[in-house]
Amino acid sequence: MTQQLQQVPVAEGLFTWPAEEPALIASESDGRLSFPPRPGGQQYLLKRRGTLWSFTTQDFRPPAPPYDGNDTAETFQPYVLGYVELEDELLVEGRLVDCSVGDLSIGQPMELRILPYTVRPDGVEVLTFAFAPVADSSEAKTGGTDQ
After folding, report:
1. β-pairing, 32-34 with 7-9?
2. What CA–CA distance (Å, rounded) separates 61 from 76?
3. Which of 24, 52, 76, 82 could bridge across to 46 with cysteines, CB 3.0–4.6 Å?
4. Using CB atoms within 10 A of its CB, is residue 78 exposed (0-12), middle (13-18) or buried (19+)?
5. What are 28's strand-pairing partners?
6. The pLDDT of residue 37 is above 90
7. Is 114:127 a contact under the CB 8 Å cutoff?
8. DSSP designation for 137
9. Going edge to edge, which strands form the sheet with 42-45?
10. Are residues 92 and 50 in contact, defined by beta-carbon separation less than 8 angstroms?
11. Spatial separation of the C-alpha atoms in residues 84 and 82, rounded to whole Å
12. Do the Cβ atoms of 104 and 95 come closer than 8 Å?
């Protein structure tokens, strides 16, 4: 029997976890949404899908702190960052995964992913959120239901 690795979100209250369909957690106050959530607002679960609004690459290791990845300047792997517009909600900045810059286009359907970020010295796996292109764009347009 294998023991399951303990997993925790990179920040408490950032997304629902564990969950079959994880969602980012925003706060709502006076009809305005904020992500990450602000103290005092009502919890609001954001949609899991949206469209790519803008993107770029992170080609150098961010300064630490606040970056706390377990890589070094020599082992750092560049990654894609973007803003995803969650329809009728807000823009969320995050890593873009399962794609390269050449795979992306503005307006492309994207969906939320939860993935490993780092492993703490105590062996706990830290998870973060990212967005990935929707595998089947026709499914994204129909909301995943057959028409």
Report:
1. unpaired
2. 6
3. 24
4. exposed
5. 33, 42
6. yes
7. yes
8. H
9. 32-34, 25-29, 42-45
10. yes
11. 6
12. no
How many Å apart are CA 32 and CA 73, to the nearest integer? 39
Nearest to 91 by CA among 63, 140, 132, 53: 53
Integer Cα distance of 33 and 45 in angstroms: 10
Half-sphere exposure of 81 (CA within 13 A, CB side): 11
What does the block give as tokens for 111? 């969906």
How far apart CA 9 and CA 138 sit, in angstroms, is: 31
- Strand 90-96 relative to strand 125-133, pairing: parallel
Place of tokens 């790519």: 52
The per-residue pLDDT for range 43-100, each reduced to its tens digit, is 999 999 999 999 999 998 888 767 777 788 888 899 999 999 998 899 999 999 999 9
User: Which residue(s) pair with 114 in the sheet?
Assistant: 129
List the one residue out of 22, 145, 26 whose CA is nearest residue 91: 26
How sure is the predictor about 115, in pLDDT bands with cuts at 50, 70 and 90?
very high
